[in-house]
Amino acid sequence: MSSAHTEVKWQMIADGHYCLSGRLERDTVSAFWRQREEWLPQQKAVTLDLSALERVDSAGMVMLLHLCQHIEQSGGQLTLCKMPEQLSTLLRLSHVDSLFAANIA
After folding, report:
1. Which segments of the protein form a coiled coil according to its record (predicted)?
2. Residue 86's domain spans which residues?
3. Is residue 63 assigned to a domain?
4. Over the chain, what HEC string results?
């Protein structure tokens, strides 16, 4: 079994519309978050398509929460769309789905 981790990729689809792909998990989140100055959008209204995520664990979920808060603190709004079922279930089981309620399309 390969120990290589699929990195997280942040890709612009259109102005203000982005796609997150790869594996958003404990082994990839910290490096990805440290590099946020490179990928964090400057728009006020940002839509993030999550359909290309292969896997999300609790660390990935927390990073998405921090991302929502970070964008809101700078006066913006992040909308998460096409959320994988695995992430929806994780939010529910962790009782944090209400924290994301305003951010889910």
Report:
1. none
2. 9-34+44-103
3. yes
4. CCCCCCCCEEEEEECCEEEEEEEECHHHHHHHHHCHHHHCCCCCEEEEEEEEEEEECHHHHHHHHHHHHHHHHCCCEEEEECCCHHHHHHHHHCCCHHHHHHHEC
